[in-house]
Amino acid sequence: MRAIVPVDNGKVAVADVDEVAGDLIIEVAAFSVNRGETFQLERPRDGWRPGKDIAGRVVESTGEGPPVGSRVVAHLPHSGWAERVAAPATQVAVLPDDISFAQAAALPLAGLTALRLLRTAGSVIGRRILLTGASGGVGHYFTELAAAAGASVTAVVSTPERGERLLDLGAETLVYDVSDASGPFDLVLESVGGSSLPIALSKLTAGGQLIWFGEASRRSVELDFFNLFDGPENTTIRHFHYTDGRDDEDLATLVRLVAAGRLHPELGRVEDWSQTDVVLDALRNRRIRGNAVLTLQEETPPMDPKTVVTKYVEAAAAGDRPTMRDSFAPDVVWTYPGDLPLSGEWKGRDAVLDEFLGAAGDLFAPGTRVTITLTNVIADGEQVFAEWTSRATARAGGAYDNKCAAVFTVSGERIVAVREYTDTDHTRRVLFPQG
């Protein structure tokens, strides 16, 4: 399989590597690039490949975790920039159809960091928070989560353009240099290092807390603790590492928040994975706001329920049994009310296709195809009402010309229930003339 591997001077290239094995094998549709990975690429360890954040579809499973075919997001220790990856079930969460692979790929490292920072900070309602280095993925996620929880967030960014989206997500104030932040603050989240940390520390209220979770400037911090006597005495400085917590549970929380419209991945740049080197360069030089995502395949938008039903009826009209079968969920239930020999309830895809629809086909003259014409489709959420006409020569010789309708229930792009209605008097007279 193909994967992205490190080469000289922080660059990467696509190369053939060995296939992977594990509890779950995921075909990667998209992956996210994090700034920390650009640092690791400068001095890669032997045998190491980059890639922590991926989204895709399960293609093999040993029985642990989501079944084959599931859309998932995963947080890996490494090697995620590849066509396929292996992941333990404890690092994977299932995706609903309305979250794209590109959105999901932007969730793991940045989203987990923001979620766990908020958890570490405790209750933030009514608290004033200073967030440095706020224009990346972590900053966007944390700002939205903290603002929704009642915090007043001051975000430090380099330019107005890089901070514009943070205001939309709930930041109260933007500043373009940490020294311009108007304190005091109850909490400082510091990820820049160098001169930024001591300045941010001086903005704390007495008894406040600074949580250090990065050093994006790549410059060491120098602290003179005697300066604390001139400002925030009794300050707590705490180091935070984002790996504290269960990935599967916290990824599921992030997915739930996105699905509910309470968390919005900020996709600063989305490119084909052939452009990984270009995107890495842009990320190093701070030309990307939010998350950078690379895609390996185009994602087909999920079919809406109306399209699912239309596709099924058209397949029935064409006699396309494979498409008809694929349109049904395995446990589909088809109900045909009344007291005709055809009336009843069929449970399961095989029963619907073979016992109900197959038996109905035997009621017509051999070699005759039933002409089905779709005349109307109306959708309301998962419920779809469809009308069609059916015309053919009955086995008994009569002309069958019936108006049919059905209420379809669709879930996960599959029909899960059908309740069909026809002119049963016409059906009785033409298809069952002998009673």
Describe this structure in words.
The chain is of the alpha/beta class. Strands 3, 4, 5, 6, 7, 14 and 15 form a 7-stranded mixed sheet that branches. A 6-stranded parallel sheet has the order 10-9-8-11-12-13. The longest helix is centred in the N-terminal third of the chain and has 14 residues. The chain starts with a strand and ends with a helix.
- Counting copies of identical and different chains, the oligomeric state is single chain
Radius of gyration: 29 Å
Number of distinct helices: 12
N-to-C CA distance: 63 Å
Low-confidence stretches: none
Count of distinct strands: 21
Secondary-structure map with pairings?
Elements: E1 2-6, E2 12-16, E3 24-33, H1 35-40, E4 53-61, E5 71-75, E6 84-87, E7 92-94, H2 101-105, H3 108-121, E8 128-131, H4 137-148, E9 152-156, H5 160-168, E10 173-175, E11 185-190, H6 196-201, E12 204-212, E13 236-239, H7 247-259, E14 267-272, H8 276-284, E15 291-295, H9 305-318, H10 321-327, E16 328-336, E17 344-347, H11 349-361, E18 371-380, E19 383-393, E20 399-411, E21 414-422, H12 424-431
Parallel strand pairs: 8-9, 8-11, 9-10, 11-12, 12-13, 14-15, 16-21
Antiparallel strand pairs: 1-2, 3-4, 3-6, 3-15, 4-5, 5-7, 16-17, 18-19, 19-20, 20-21
Helix pairs in contact: 3-4, 3-7, 9-10
Briefly characterize the structure.
By secondary structure, the chain is of the alpha/beta class. It is built from twelve helices and 21 strands. Strand 1 and strand 2 form a beta hairpin.
Defining key terms:
27% helix; single chain; 12 helices; elongated; alpha/beta; 435 residues
